[in-house]
């Protein structure tokens, strides 16, 4: 049931006004109409029976949005769980369970349940959503509720789309922006962005280039200290002479700096009156050092103690192409993309000493010596993704409208992760090879290893795993205007997915010979064959969507929707392991989502007020859940572990009370409940508990005032955001389930503009709030991902 006080606050906040779509100040006091492509057609956001919220280009600029974390925090009813740049997952409408360790989530984890798109290209990946720097972006669209019929796999809870600006044929445009900021007790940040749009052949060919470099200063300190394994925490250390680790060589203030560097090129070519071709290529390098979660309880505010180097290099290239044209009355779009992404990451893993059953074996000789207990992870993840979509649409003015298409996708994830224990060298453990291969193999071709060479000295165990997904789908949506006011839409998608998990997970434990002897490793090819598991694993099905919309007049739209979503199945690398009580399944299936919602969109007071919202009920069954458990199941496993229900309401308002003042905002309330938690390998919270990372109440409020000052256009803006308490995980053992505190943040800015130049002073996190965005024990120590401390900055822009 809803809590009466919080629901009352939500209703009051709705009438007050909160974050919404696009900035809208105009002398006519009419809110700007925003076009979105949430239905695979270009339509006004106010005219479609879909719950969609968008931050337009001007709004992104006004809010100083630059990366993933920025635009997520300005979207109501959207949350994220993660540990820093390029290491986050998106959640919508409270449909969240947990965020697992990034060193395990790609090849071995669940697929996300919110799809992320860059233009027409799906770019989602578990635990590592593509962190695209927000420059020259036309809008960010958030489609809430299952969108599987049109946007396919992983669109269970919704879809987030970043839409870039495209080359314009008829205008030269140049924009430069530079920024400098200082963070309380942290390093300076700076940014430089440039965009140029060049018409090359009149009405035929145009080129657009956007480039950027942003350096974000650190604010978390790695402070000096030592670590000593404690037998009271892990009995594996009982009776052993324990040595301490020191982080003296890694001590550094403000060590979590990051940088984004990239370029996007687009070419728009008009072939003839009916056909055009768009080519785009984006390259980005993201680098980060340190960690973005701190340990205020054991170490101090914005402080940690790390004993192994933490660093991240995340680069991607995305090439996309779109051919649009018309044959007779049919609009035809073919779009394709190729994504090539590589992530190299190093991180401290010393906390494994507190949970690993055999960890002392890797560290001590069990006679008279234990060596340095510092441990780390060094991994490389390569992700390639090819997608093709062909769709046909009938004219919008027809009373019977059809969108139909076919989609194909081929995804490959190559995951190589080395767990490095320096003590292995002191103990004389040999180098290890992937299972199924050695220098003396007579048939090494049979190996599925990505890297068949020996691992460096000191590697205790490693993953060498390939995950492949191939999908073919056919989809369609049919809308019929029953009369001038009433319309019905039916959507269907048939999908067929093949999933493979190949390779091995190897350990040097017991490896007396050093070559191809591996007591605890899994040669996954053989494992599936012995268990009678099909490779590839196939899953197919049909999902549906039904919508009824009613427009009593031009200013009001009412709609009701039933929709479903899906995500790919997965293998369990640790399948078959277990104890007397539970056994880890070899595979897990897609979880099912039944979403019922009713919404409204209104434009009132002579176009000066928009009030939109929806109420919804979600039945979520056989929820895919991941758990990190090195004690029993060899690090990590998956399960269809529970069922849940979600009841919620959300609303957004944009209001122009005067020609100078704009009030915008949103509110959401979610009541999440675990309805069934049958016995399984995963020890989840009991029935009646709330889901994870699902704050019941979220609020955003923003005001912007514009006037003339000394012949210049002046403005001030202030905003406040509130997020309620939330649980960190649904898993209660061996991971801890923590209650994350509620938090409120405040931002403000003041700016001046003239025809070509503009400058702005801004402050983010004015009250220097330490938001608890995500509490994790992913490295076996409790740490809290927090927001950036109070930051003061200045931006200068030039438009030609």
Number of strand elements: 45
Terminal Cα separation, in Å? Answer: 55 Å
The number of helical elements comes to 6
CATH overall fold name? Maltoporin, Chain A
Rg on CA atoms, Å: 27 Å
> Could you name the CATH class?
Mainly Beta
GO biological process, one term: iron ion transport
Membrane topology: Multi-pass membrane protein
Organism: Microbulbifer okhotskensis
InterPro entries: Beta-barrel_TonB, Beta-barrel_TonB_sf, Plug_dom, TonB-dep_rcpt-like
What does this protein structure show overall?
A hairpin with a 7-residue loop joins strand 32 and strand 33. It contains six helices and 45 strands. With 800 residues, the chain is mostly beta strands. It has one domain: TonB-dependent receptor, beta-barrel domain (Maltoporin, Chain A), CATH 2.40.170.20. The radius of gyration is 27 Å and the shape is globular.
Overview in brief:
Pfam families: Plug, TonB_dep_Rec_b-barrel. The chain is mostly beta strands.
Q: Keyphrases for this structure?
A:
single chain; 800 residues; mainly beta; five-stranded mixed β-sheet; 6 helices; 5% helix
What's the structural blueprint in terms of helices and strands?
Layout: H1 4-16, E1 35-36, E2 43-44, E3 52-56, H2 57-62, H3 68-73, E4 78-82, E5 88-92, E6 114-118, E7 121-122, E8 137-144, H4 148-151, E9 158-164, E10 173-183, E11 188-201, E12 205-216, E13 221-222, E14 226-227, E15 245-246, E16 258-270, E17 276-289, E18 293-294, E19 303-304, E20 311-327, E21 330-348, E22 375-393, E23 400-421, H5 423-427, E24 459-481, E25 486-507, E26 522-523, H6 524-531, E27 537-553, E28 556-565, E29 570-571, E30 587-588, E31 592-604, E32 609-628, E33 636-655, E34 661-676, E35 683-684, E36 697-709, E37 712-723, E38 726-727, E39 731-733, E40 739-740, E41 743-753, E42 757-764, E43 774-776, E44 783-785, E45 791-799
């Amino acid at each position: 049931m809803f809590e009466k006080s919080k629901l009352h606050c939500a209703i009051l906040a709705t009438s007050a006004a909160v974050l919404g779509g696009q900035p809208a100040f105009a002398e006519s006091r009419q809110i700007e109409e925003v076009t979105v492509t949430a239905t695979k057609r270009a339509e006004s956001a106010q005219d479609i029976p879909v719950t969609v919220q968008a931050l337009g280009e001007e709004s992104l600029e006004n809010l100083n949005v630059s990366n993933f974390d920025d635009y997520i925090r300005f979207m109501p009813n959207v949350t994220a769980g993660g540990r820093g740049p390029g290491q986050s997952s998106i959640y919508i409408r409270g449909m969240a369970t947990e965020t697992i360790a990034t060193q395990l989530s790609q090849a071995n984890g669940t697929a996300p349940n919110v799809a992320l798109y860059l233009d027409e290209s799906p770019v989602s990946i578990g635990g590592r959503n593509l962190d695209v720097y927000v420059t020259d972006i036309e809008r960010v669209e958030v489609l809430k509720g299952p969108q599987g019929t049109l946007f396919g796999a992983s669109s269970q809870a919704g879809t987030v789309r970043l839409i870039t600006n495209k080359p314009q044929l008829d205008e030269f445009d140049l924009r430069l922006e530079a920024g400098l900021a200082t963070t309380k007790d942290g390093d300076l940040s700076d940014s430089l962005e440039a965009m140029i749009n060049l018409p090359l052949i009149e009405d035929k060919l145009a080129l657009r280039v956007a480039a950027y470099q942003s350096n974000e200063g650190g604010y978390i300190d790695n402070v000096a200290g030592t670590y000593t394994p404690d037998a009271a925490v892990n009995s594996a250390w009982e009776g052993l002479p324990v040595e301490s680790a020191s982080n003296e060589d890694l001590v550094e203030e403000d060590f979590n700096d990051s940088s984004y560097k990239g370029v996007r090129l687009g070419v728009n070519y008009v072939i003839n009156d009916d056909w055009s071709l768009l080519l785009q290529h984006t390259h980005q390098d993201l680098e980060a050092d340190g960690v973005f979660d701190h340990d205020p309880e054991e170490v101090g505010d914005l402080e940690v103690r790390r004993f192994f180097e933490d660093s991240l290099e995340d680069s991607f290239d995305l090439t996309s192409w779109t051919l649009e044209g018309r044959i007779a009355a049919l609009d035809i779009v073919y779009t394709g993309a190729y994504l090539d992404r590589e992530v190299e990451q190093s991180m401290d893993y010393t906390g494994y000493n507190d949970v690993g059953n055999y960890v002392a074996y890797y560290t001590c000789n069990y006679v008279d010596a234990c060596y340095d207990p510092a441990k780390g992870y060094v991994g490389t993840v390569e992700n390639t993704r090819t997608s093709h979509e062909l769709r046909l649409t009938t004219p919008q003015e027809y009373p019977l409208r059809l969108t139909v298409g076919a989609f194909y996708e081929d995804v490959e994830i190559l995951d190589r992760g080395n767990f490095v224990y320096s003590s292995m060298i002191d103990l004389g453990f040999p180098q290890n090879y992937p299972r199924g291969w050695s220098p003396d193999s007579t048939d090494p071709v049979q190996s599925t290893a990505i890297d068949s060479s020996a691992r460096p000295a000191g590697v205790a165990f490693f993953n060498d795993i390939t995950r492949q997904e191939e999908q073919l789908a056919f989809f369609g949506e049919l809308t019929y205007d029953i009369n001038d006011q009433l319309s019905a839409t039916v959507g269907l998608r048939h999908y067929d997915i093949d999933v493979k998990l190949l390779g091995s997970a190897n350990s040097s434990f017991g490896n007396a010979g050093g070559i191809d002897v591996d007591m605890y490793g899994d040669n996954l090819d053989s494992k599936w064959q012995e268990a009678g598991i099909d490779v590839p694993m196939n899953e197919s099905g049909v999902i549906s969507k039904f919508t009824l919309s009613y427009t009593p007049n031009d200013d009001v739209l009412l709609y009701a929707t039933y929709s479903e979503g899906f995500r790919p199945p997965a293998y369990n690398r640790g399948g078959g392991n277990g104890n007397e009580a539970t056994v880890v399944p070899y595979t897990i299936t897609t979880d099912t989502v039944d979403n019922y919602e009713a919404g409204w969109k209104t434009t009132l007071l002579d176009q000066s007020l928009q009030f939109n919202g929806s109420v919804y009920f979600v039945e979520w069954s056989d929820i895919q859940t991941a758990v990190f458990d090195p004690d029993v199941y060899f690090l990590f496993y998956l399960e269809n572990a529970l069922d849940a229900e979600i009841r919620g309401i959300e609303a957004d308002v944009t209001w122009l009370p005067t020609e100078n003042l704009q009030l915008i905002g949103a509110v959401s309330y979610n009541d999440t409940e675990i309805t069934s938690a049958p016995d399984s390998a995963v020890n989840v919270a009991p029935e009646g508990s709330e889901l994870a990372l699902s704050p019941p109440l979220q609020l955003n409020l923003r005001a912007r005032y514009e006037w003339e000052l000394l012949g210049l256009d002046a403005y001030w803006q202030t905003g406040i955001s509130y997020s309620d308490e939330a649980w960190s995980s649904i898993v209660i053992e061996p991971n801890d389930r923590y209650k994350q505190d509620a938090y409120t943040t405040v931002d403000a800015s003041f700016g001046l503009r003239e025809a070509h130049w503009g400058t702005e002073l801004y402050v983010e996190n004015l009250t220097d709030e330490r938001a608890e965005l995500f509490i994790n024990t992913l490295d076996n120590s409790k740490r809290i991902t927090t927001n950036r401390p109070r930051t003061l900055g200045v931006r200068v822009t030039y438009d030609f």
